[in-house]
Amino acid sequence: KTLMVDYSNLDALKMTEIGSDKIAVIDTKEGKLEKLVSVGKVPHPGRGANFVDPQFGPVWATGHLGDETISLIGTDPEKHPDNAWKVVRTLKGLGGGSL
């Protein structure tokens, strides 16, 4: 069950579940699950970072509590539909848990 909160200026809300290797992308306007994205071991439940990747366009990055990788997930379904809501790049970090 997904409980919605009114974040009226956001198009999508990214969420994680502790113990999972998935990130749920939720369409907050429709209140529906958009996609489950498979990532590294136990994605960090924090906010991550948003930036524009020079190759893949707008992305959201999150580290993992269970490994040292950082997943970059495409976040622009209108201008970059081939990259939207999937891992477009995985970076190796210095340790699990944060960016």
Automatic annotation (TrEMBL):
UniProt xrefs under Pfam families: Cytochrom_D1 (PF02239)
Gene3D superfamilies (alphabetical): C-terminal (heme d1) domain of cytochrome cd1-nitrite reductase
InterPro entries tied to this protein: Cyt_cd1_C_sf (IPR003143), Haem_d1_sf (IPR011048)
Name assigned to this protein: Cytochrome cd1-type nitrite reductase
Lineage of the species this protein comes from: unclassified sequences, environmental samples
